[in-house]
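Annex B. Sample input.
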Amino acid sequence: SKDKKIVITTRDRVLRAWQNSTELVRDFENYAKETSDDAAEMFQKYAVDEGRHAAELLKLLHDYQDNGTV
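Annex B, continued. Sample output.
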């Protein structure tokens, strides 16, 4: 019916954050390859940092799945 609202759960938000984070890792890695000055080093560091975020979010997603919160 028209009155039904879509419920976005915490797991949904974590999933979207993980997807965004993995995209940023790829972007930063590409930027690092495409530049050759101090920016390349900065982008590589950002890729590593964002990779940590993605790993933490993935662990949380697995926890939700293992606990049946899907």
